[in-house]
Every structure is written in C-alpha cells, then in structure tokens.
Amino acid sequence: APRARSAGSQRASVSLRGGPRRAAARATAPNTSHATEAFARLSLVRRQLAAAVQDEDYARAAALRDERTSLLEGLPARLQFCVARLEAMKDEEASLAARCEAAQALGNIGDAALIASELAAWLSRAEGEPTALVEAVEAALWAQWMHPPEMHPDAAALGVAMERGCAHLAAPGGVELDQAVEVFSDVIREVPTFAEAINKRATALYLMGELRRAAADCKTVLALNPAHFGAASGMGMCLLRLGRVEEAKAAFETALAANPSLGAIRQYVSAIERAEAQQQE
C-alpha cells in the first residue's frame, strides 16, 4: 500500500533549468585544479617536514618549511584558512575546546573536495583521541558530505533540495519516506556522483524495508567515497537483515576501518564472531 503523505504536501522536486545561465556559470566557474594540486603537495610537505624534524635533518626541514610557506601563499584565502584550522585541529598541545572549534569551522566552511579527505584520514587513525574531538570531526565530515558540488551552477538549489529531503526523511512515523526518495532521486539525476544524496536515499529505502535497493545505493556511495563509514555501516545493516552475515561483517569492518569509534558497529562484529564461534563448537 502507498505510504501516507502529509496534508497539503506535494512532490518536492529539484527545480533545475538548463539554458544560457547554466552554460555561462560553467564557463565562468574558476579552475580549481591548481589549488587542488597545491593543497595535495602541501599535505605531503607537511608530513615530510615532520619526518625531517624527527630525524633532526634541519637543512631539509628548513627547505621544506620554505616550500610550505610558498605553497600557502599561493592558495586562495579560504584554503589558507582551512589549512590553519586543520593544523589547529591536529595540534595535540592545544586545548580540547580549541581543537573542537577548529573542526567545527572546517565543517561549516571547508572545501568539501579537499578538506573531507583530510578529516577522513584523521578519523581513521583517531582511536584513543578525546571523544569530544572525534564527535566534532564526525560532525564536520557529515557537514562536508552534505555540501553539493561547489562548482555546480545550481549548487544552491541542490542544497535546498537536500535539506528538504532530510526533512521528509525525519518526518515522524516515516510517513514521508517516499517523498524523501523522490527528492534525493531528483538530486541524483542532476548530479549522479553526489555521494551523500545517494546515501540519504539509501537511508530512506532502508527504513521503507527496500533492503536490496538500499544496499545497492550504499555500494555506489562507497565506490564514490570509500571513507564513508555511514554507508559502510548501512550496507552492513542491510546485509545482516538479508541474512548475508559474512558480507555484513565485512561491511561493518570497512566502517570500523574508516571510523574506529563506532561502538555499536563494533558490537555487531563481536556478536557475529560469537555466533560463529558457537557454531564451530
């Protein structure tokens, strides 16, 4: 039977029109390849600098420090800010409050294409880090993943659509899940590589009991964003309910590799392992 809709609700699609405006937007969108390459090089230089200092190779450290300064000066102001916030977040000598504030700032204004990978890499190695900081980085990652592609000419409309879809997803009693699927599907048609739109649709499908479709969406998300611990966890839940226990365990382990702090997922893995041990007795 079809699911109930809210009174007065209507199909909430993404209103995205083609034509000269979008073509012009694409033509005038800034080329970010140089910034991307510089940011990647900066990340490498940061690691090399730390290694040089640890090895007491001060001549190399000085050269790397000069290169880092030059790379920073060549970045757009926004990315310079992001680099500063990343370093503040990772600074173990800073206060916990300052590190959490830096993570929150990255979630609010960080460049999704560049900063999310840095946050995900930190989170994958965050076992033993303060819980508050881990939670702040998780929240920043979710915020980053929700950002539509910045260079898309209709990024603002896509952002509004994502918020609308999430509102349908959160409606009490699950009465607007079909509308959530419609909205997220509209976004996906416009931007097939927008991983978080696919992940949110997977969540709605899971709640509707469409487990195979949800698992397929989770698989697509992980192909686009291997660090997406939410999609890996969701795939595990789908497979577990489908009785595909070993595949579910593998998905849960993928989630834990990306985010070791997922206590509930770790409990699922432990429960599966206990059941396996009992079967072998």
Automatic annotation (TrEMBL):
It comes from the Eukaryota. The keyword Repeat applies. Keywords: Repeat, TPR repeat. Residues 1-31 are annotated as: Disordered. GO terms for biological process: post-translational protein targeting to endoplasmic reticulum membrane. GO terms for molecular function: molecular adaptor activity. TPR repeats lie at residues 229-262. InterPro entries: SGT, TPR-like_helical_dom_sf, TPR_rpt. Gene3D superfamilies: Tetratricopeptide repeat domain (1.25.40.10). One of its GO terms (cellular component) is TRC complex. This is Uncharacterized protein. It comes from Prasinoderma singulare.
